[in-house]
Amino acid sequence: MTQGASLGPMVQTMAGETPAPAPPPGVPSGTPAGPPMPPAGPPLHLPAGAPAAPPAAPPAAPPAELPEEYTPTARDLPVITRTDTLIDRPAVVPVPEPAMDPDAPEGMGPLYVVGDVHGYYDELREALAAEGLIDADGNWAAGNARLWFLGDFTDRGPDGIGVIDLVMQLSAEAAAAGGYCKALMGNHELLLLGAKRFGDTPVQSGAGTASFQAAWLLNGGQKNDMDRLEDHHLQWMARLDAVMEEDGHLLVHSDTTAYLEYGDSIEAVNDTVHDVLTRSDADEVWDLFRKFTKRFAFRDEAGSDAVRELLDAYGGDRVVHGHSPIPYLLGEVGTEDGESESVAVDGPHVYADGLAIAMDGGVTMAGKLLVVQLPLAG
């Protein structure tokens, strides 16, 4: 098993057509009412230094409502133009020593997880530094600590490729220090892979004919990322696992039970996902992307039962996921200017009878990029 290191009008792309540029965010006409949906270090081979500033993101409209059975032909999350985040700024004081986890494998340090990053490179570096995981130069500083990213490195934010390069760099540095830095595959990794591999090739979706290129543009795809996407980035993303268990925590990207359709064990799911990407059939990869884009399976009354389905199949005591921003899980909706108190995120959201931990702090909507140590204190 290999381990690697949002809503607007529908865009339909037929064979031979070039997709029109993505329209401004808004509400697709005729969309049925439903629950509110969320707004969809230097690389090893380059010298140290901050990446070039990308073009500013276009303004966005307020979040829209989606049908319950969502097919990602339209934008998954509004692309919010933010001027700041509620991320903890590292203070000029020593970072406290992390608590030692009695469940950690012998010789391994504490376990940390990172929620969705979506291209917010600077915020990621500050959050990692605040936990003592990297130093001021962006290098691994946590010795034998273990770090897991829950996926969704690109789209919506300004520097997705910079984020991937940093994760790849930290993976090498952590391994050399006796720890590790690893990552899971999110739906946006599948979307970027599909846009690069298949472009305008028509695929069959539940809403008609679509294409990866159109869906990528609608879901916050950044030209700056596509222009800098290289073969080694593609190979790294394609090798990412979809599910992993660490110290009783079942780590996944999406809050969905769709993983069960791909295997009855962690190894089987990861092997199946890798096989799909190796065969490189556009419709098959689209179906995988569509299923990994589902969300909110753990939120309602039957949510704890859905979590138990995953735990019974794959092991662990709790599911830890990203994908659905915490304000949306709580039924709160942020504003474009990011000043609404409702978007404030203090930390992970524990729900579904304590069986699920949500880690997407909503950095794309002026929330917080979460980096936390597991198990959660208290």
Q: Which of globular, elongated, flat, extended, rod-shaped describes the shape?
A: globular
Assign the structural class, choosing from mainly alpha, mainly beta, alpha/beta, alpha+beta, or little secondary structure.
alpha/beta
If you compute it from the alpha carbons, what radius of gyration comes out, rounded to the nearest whole angstrom? Answer: 19 Å
Element order: H for helix, E for strand: EHEHEHEEHHHEEHHHEHEEE
Helix proportion range: 25-40%
Distance between termini? 34 Å
Mean pLDDT level? 80
Spatial ordering of strands, largest sheet? 6-7-8-10-9
Uncertain ranges: 1-71, 83-96, 334-340
State the helix count: 10
Strand content: 5-15%
Overview of the structural elements:
This protein is an alpha/beta fold and 378 residues long. It has ten helices and eleven strands. A five-stranded mixed β-sheet has the order 6-7-8-10-9. It is globular.
